[in-house]
TrEMBL record:
<feature type="domain" description="Glycosyltransferase 2-like">
    <location>
        <begin position="5"/>
        <end position="132"/>
    </location>
</feature>
<dbReference type="Pfam" id="PF00535">
    <property type="entry name" value="Glycos_transf_2"/>
</dbReference>
<dbReference type="InterPro" id="IPR001173">
    <property type="entry name" value="Glyco_trans_2-like"/>
</dbReference>
<keyword id="KW-0808">Transferase</keyword>
<dbReference type="GO" id="GO:0016740">
    <property type="term" value="F:transferase activity"/>
</dbReference>
<dbReference type="InterPro" id="IPR050834">
    <property type="entry name" value="Glycosyltransf_2"/>
</dbReference>
<protein>
    <submittedName>
        <fullName>Glycosyl transferase</fullName>
    </submittedName>
</protein>
<dbReference type="InterPro" id="IPR029044">
    <property type="entry name" value="Nucleotide-diphossugar_trans"/>
</dbReference>
């Protein structure tokens, strides 16, 4: 039986897809399948997948409608591996990621996932930084999106919830929280992947991502009753970021949970308070300018 299924959604990924797939095929373990899901590409992505599949029998060519979540769900429906690893088409896995993760989980049957740190590389500036996972318990997943999509390797049998196909951003946060909250996970600070920041990927859309953070946070509050003082300040931050984000998303198409009404009300009050509001706007501008995802 295949040990690991690696799921790679690919939309107009002709420039980077081969790099991503090769980072999987050159892993120090070979018992794997690479499910590359073409989700509505209009460039040469399909041709590249066909070539990769013809060159290595471990690569499989799948199709889905447009959308990362639809592509990942197609991969999940097709996967045969005991373990699931996601990878975006413009990123890479470290050469020993799969071997080390599988070896650990085989030796620790009570663990559901092995989560690794990532290198973030800005392809425009060449700057690199290592982002370690700042949590030790899966219960922290209700607070924020701590896992890059390629950080966890997870047992397939624990994935009971699918990706929400109506979400443009932060669908991975909701997916990990719904499937891993309360589970026994292992967080390693070894680097397991390289995440490339380009002008083409969703990481550059700072404002829209922050609006969806507020939206997903509300969903999680409803599903898990995540309330109380440990969450309130974070909810206020999500609300402020939502209110200060560029109005690219029609609020009627992004119905926030009623659980976020109070933080939004307080946020609006703070923003119209002259000194406090100006300080908040200035601080967020600084954070945005320093954010490695760009503008």
């Amino acid at each position: 039986m295949v040990k690991v299924s690696i799921i790679i959604p690919a939309y107009n990924a002709a420039e980077t897809l081969q790099r991503a797939v090769q980072s999987v095929l050159t892993q120090t373990m070979e018992d794997l399948e690479v499910l590359v899901v073409n989700n509505g590409s209009t460039d040469q992505t399909a041709t590249i997948i066909e070539h990769l599949a013809a060159s290595d029998s471990r690569v499989r060519f799948l199709n889905s409608d447009k959308g990362r979540s639809r592509a990942r769900n197609e991969g999940l429906d097709t996967a045969k591996g005991d373990f699931i690893q996601f990878l975006d088409a413009d990123d890479e896995l470290s050469s020993r990621k799969l071997y080390e993760a599988v070896d650990y989980l085989k030796s620790n049957e009570h663990k559901t996932a092995y989560v690794t740190a990532a290198i973030y590389k800005n392809d425009r500036s060449g700057e690199e930084s290592v982002r370690e996972i700042p949590i030790v318990s899966s219960k922290s997943l209700l607070k924020a999106n701590y896992f890059p999509i390629s950080s966890p390797l997870v047992r397939r049998k624990v994935l009971k919830r699918r990706f929400r196909e109506d979400l443009e951003f932060n669908e991975d946060w909701l997916f990990w929280a719904e499937n891993l909250y309360g589970a026994d996970i292992e967080v390693s600070q070894s680097v397991g992947s390289v995440i490339h920041i380009t002008s083409q990927n969703t990481m550059t859309q700072f404002d829209r991502m922050q609006m969806y953070e507020c939206y997903v946070r509300g969903i999680l509050k409803e599903e898990f009753s995540a309330k109380g003082p440990n969450y309130w300040l974070r909810d206020l931050r999500y609300a402020l970021n939502y209110l200060l984000s560029q109005p690219e998303i029609d609020e009627r198409l992004l119905p926030l949970s009623k659980t976020m009404r109070c933080p939004l009300r307080v946020g609006r009050t703070l923003l119209v308070t002259p000194i406090v509001g100006a300080w908040i706007v200035k601080k967020r501008a600084v954070v945005k300018s320093r954010n490695q995802y760009g503008n």
